[in-house]
Write a structure and sequence with these properties.
Strand content: 25-35%
Number of helices: 6
Structural class: alpha+beta
Order of helices and strands: HHEEEEEHHHEEEEH
Radius of gyration: 21 Å
Shape: globular
Distance between the termini: 37 Å
Length: 385
């Protein structure tokens, strides 16, 4: 129902501008929540929030409907108009010169739910109600309903907002057509792009937080130890300064394919399955001195970064975890990052189990590493199940 989508959109914008995300937590995936929460964390550090004066939606329309292997997807085109600017947290006044040069925008919002789920007769996640028992949904710690204990955002009962894409980057893609996906799903029927892309969104924003803080602590749960060790050297102070891209914005998150460890009929002791996801994003250069003072440039720099995830062969995917990739697999508590090796609520390992995809490598489009991955994906596209 487009009326529900419009309600979700307006709820999200109000929450974003108020820097209070609790109203949207029930109906968004972990990837979307991480995106908003870490951006707001950066805004607060810089002393501002976003203002949206005169916000009004145009006519919403269905851009694409796809019945996938495990999830149905409905993508809605949302045109809107607003005077978007920055507001100082100190005095509530508009930051001079902060108004965006245009006031017309279009976003594509993708909602997903499990195949076979029935449309609710009453209120659900978007209205802040448990789609199973109807009770008010409080999810400030757990992904489960506090009344009936159902995994409310699994997609089994109601639509979950899993991705927000800029109109310039959006295009129709079919899961089974991705290189290596159909073959991979033969041995792991639960494998799905929704989980991968949500995982990549979480990893991207944790990486952005690591860049901003100059520490790999935010990455420790979502990345392999080797990557964290290598990346620590890249974001450390060089002399008395360091630089990173901040004030990030994501255009799209798109799975490029899956590379099975035994795709060529042979495997080694250390072989791993890999999944490649591209994140299109931009940010402004920020220079930081030894005392932590930051100077942000004005020009935005566009990047197309390949996030390579890995896990041991033979693992299988749980569909229930597709939208809760930043939650503890054991108790459902939200994982807020840091270096602690276990869940602070139940003591389970924070890196999950053998089915968990961990970030193993990063590669910019155009580099030799990215080109090598593209060749592997090209070869995988010719293999048929």
């Amino acid at each position: 129902c487009l009326a529900r989508v419009q309600r979700a959109f307006l709820t999200a914008q109000n929450a974003w501008c108020a820097q209070d995300l609790e109203p949207l937590r029930p109906f968004v995936s972990d990837g979307v929540f991480e995106r908003f929460s870490l951006q707001i964390e950066e805004q607060k550090e810089d002393g501002w929030r976003q203002g949206m004066d005169g916000l009004r939606c145009g006519a919403l329309s269905i851009a694409h409907v796809e019945p996938g292997l495990h999830f149905d997807t409905v993508t809605v085109r949302i045109p809107f108009h607003s005077d978007i600017h920055r507001v100082k947290l100190s005095d509530g006044k508009r930051v001079p010169g902060s108004k965006l040069p245009r006031d017309s925008f279009t976003e594509l919002w993708s909602f997903l739910r499990r195949r076979g789920a029935k449309t609710l007769a009453g209120d659900g996640l978007i209205e802040g109600k448990c789609p199973n028992c109807g009770a008010p949904l409080s999810m400030n710690r757990s992904a489960r309903c506090g009344h009936c204990e159902c995994l409310a955002r699994s997609g089994q009962l109601d639509w979950v907002l899993a991705e927000i894409t800029q109109a310039s980057e959006w295009r129709v893609e079919r899961e089974r057509d991705l290189p290596g996906m159909a073959r991979f799903q033969e041995r792991d029927p639960g494998m799905n792009v929704q989980m991968l892309e949500d995982r990549a969104s979480v990893a991207f924003w944790r990486k952005a937080a690591a860049d901003r803080k100059g520490s790999t602590d935010p990455l420790t749960r979502v990345a392999e130890a080797d990557l964290c060790r290598d990346y620590a050297g890249q974001i450390a102070l060089t002399g008395k300064t360091r630089a990173y891209l901040g004030d990030c914005a994501v255009g799209s998150v798109r799975t490029l394919g899956v590379l099975a460890a035994d795709a060529d009929g042979a495997s080694t002791k250390d072989a791993r399955d890999r999944a490649v996801v591209e994140v299109v994003w931009d940010g402004r250069r920020v220079d930081v001195d030894a005392e932590g003072k930051r100077v942000t440039g004005q020009a935005r720099h566009l990047h197309r970064t390949l996030f390579v995830f890995a896990r041991r062969p033979g693992a299988t995917t749980s569909l229930d975890d597709a939208f809760t990739t930043a939650h503890c697999r054991t108790c459902g508590a939200h994982d807020t990052g840091g270096t602690r090796p276990d869940c602070e609520y139940c003591g389970a390992p924070r890196t999950g189990d053998k089915s968990t995809w961990l970030l193993a490598a990063l590669a910019e489009r155009g580099t030799s590493t990215a080109r090598a991955l593209e060749r592997e994906l090209g070869a995988a596209a010719f293999r048929r199940p």
